[in-house]
Structures are given as C-alpha cells and as structure tokens.
Design goal:
The chain has about 200 residues and is α/β, with parallel strands linked by helices. Helices cover about 35% and strands about 20% of the residues. The protein has a six-stranded parallel sheet with strand order 2-1-3-4-5-6.
Length: about 200
C-alpha cells in the first residue's frame, strides 16, 4: 500500500460540528492530501487540555506507525493545539499550519483579550499558555516546518501579533474577519498552504 499524506485538521472552539471543515478541505484530496478533521472537544466538560493533547498525539503515532506522512492544520483555537502536538512529535510531523489561531496570551484587556476569548474553555486557555511557554523549544529547523496565516484586514477575535511565530513562514491573505478568513484560507487561497504541506515530502 502506498504511503498517504494525512493532514489532521483541528477545528476551533465550535468543534461539535466537523462537517464544515470537511467540506472546505475536501478539494485537497485532488492534491494528494488526505484531510482528517479531528475535534479535540474544547467544550466537552473535560477542562484539562492534557488528555486532549494525548489523544491527538496518539492519532499522529497511529498514522506514522502505518507508514503515512502526517501534517497538522489548526484553525482558530486549533492552532495552539496543532503547535503543541507538533512540539511533542516534531521529529515525525512533516508540516504544521496555524490558520488564524492564537499561539500566545497577548492582550489581557479589551474585546480581544485572552480572558474574554478563552473563558468558555479552560482547556483552550491551557493550550495557549502551554504553547507560549514551549515556544522556546522550537529550533530554527522546526520553525521552517511551520506556516502561519492571518487576515490582512483585521481579525475581530484574534490579535494578529498572537498568531505569528518568529522563524516560521508567516503570511497573510487579503481578507477581513475571523471565520471568513479561515474559510478563504482553506479554499480560494489554499494553494500556498497546499504547496507548503507538500514541500520536501519524500
């Protein structure tokens, strides 16, 4: 059986519905990618992020064990989860992309403050804090495997400075608004993401 390139797509806080992301990434299959939407369960009553991260890492290990290449795409709240999983398995994960996701705490007051945007999910708050504290573990070679995507004309939920990562391929798409930008990044502006995911794949 030929090796497949599994792309684990991690949704944001409203991850009870995975169908939208499945539809938005379905065309990636024509590019030789196999997107698999994995809901971590941000609001499932399990307040700790640790077991959610453990299940995500187990999924990565399962695909690697069967000989598949594995990449990660985190959207919104899923961005920090993707980075945390990458840090756990950076020697086997091929690429990781953060699409409009908060990777560090950032502003602590105002409409887009960390407290206001994470109060509905303690697990999400823990994921962001963990991602920020472990950012220093990423070597230059690790950062070259990371892409971040943010809205050029403003994101009303996630401050742009919390989405980028020094040494990564940080890019923008010509859109406003959080949800619209995520949908656009995965569809009409998906070509750079797909090229990045397939780059240097052996």
């Amino acid at each position: 059986m030929s090796k497949e390139h599994k792309v684990i797509v991690i949704p944001g806080l409203g991850d009870r519905r995975t169908k939208p992301l499945e539809l938005l990434t379905n065309h990636w299959k024509r590019e030789g990618l196999e997107p698999i939407v994995h809901a971590v369960g941000w609001n499932d009553g399990e307040d700790s992020f640790e077991p959610k991260l453990h299940r995500l890492v187990e999924m990565i290990d399962g695909f690697v064990d069967q000989g598949d290449a594995v990449s990660l795409v985190g959207t919104s709240a899923g961005g920090s989860a993707a980075l945390n999983a990458f840090i756990e398995r950076k020697n086997v994960v091929h690429r990781v992309i953060n699409v409009c996701g908060r990777l560090r705490v950032g502003p602590t007051d105002g409409f887009r403050s960390f407290e206001s945007k994470s109060k509905s999910s303690p697990a999400f708050a823990e994921s962001v804090k963990l991602c920020e504290t472990r950012e220093g573990l990423l070597l230059p070679a690790d950062r070259r495997k990371i892409m971040t995507v943010r809205a050029m004309f403003g994101d009303e939920l996630v401050p742009s400075e919390t989405t980028v990562l020094q040494g990564a391929y940080n890019t923008t798409i010509p859109t406003p608004e959080h949800v619209f930008s995520i949908a656009s990044a995965l569809t009409v502006f998906s070509k750079p993401l797909i090229v990045f995911l397939k780059q240097d794949l052996r």
